[in-house]
Amino acid sequence: MEKDCIFCQIAHGRTDTEILTETDTLVVFKDINPHAPVHLLFVPKKHIRSINDLTSADQEILSELIMVARDMAKEHGVSKSGYKLLYNVEKGGGQLVFHLHLHLIGGWH
Questions:
Q1: Is the whole model's pTM more than 0.70, yes or no?
Q2: Which of 24, 36, 80, 92 is the most buried (most CB within 10 A)?
């Protein structure tokens, strides 16, 4: 855990953020600045700065992020209508918090 990383603090229960689901590997919560009716964040508990910092040992984390996102899309009623899964990578790619995270965005009619 990185001491000053807000996503590490959330993932390790050190904030009052409402966690929608949690596994041994990750947490899911609503984005505080949503860009759609459904905007969820999937954050690994392990601090990984960005996609650029992934190692082969992190493959299971990536797989779980995507599989849990699929399940949450169904749970939040957007699996049939459609949704986006998005990673922002580095500042030029829109990454604002430097802890790997996956966005699930959907719910438009």
A1: yes
A2: 36
Say if residue 52 is exposed, middle or buried (CB neighbours under 10 Å; 0-12, 13-18, 19+): exposed
**From first to last of its 109 residues, what are the pLDDT tens digits of the chain?**
788 999 999 999 999 999 999 999 999 999 999 999 999 999 999 999 999 999 999 999 999 999 999 999 999 999 999 999 999 999 999 999 999 999 999 999 8
Please indicate, yes or no, if residue 21 is contained in any of the structural domains.
yes
Active site residues: 101
Alpha helices in 1-109 (DSSP H): 6-11, 59-75
* Residue 23 placed within a domain: yes
Range of the domain at 22: 1-28+87-97
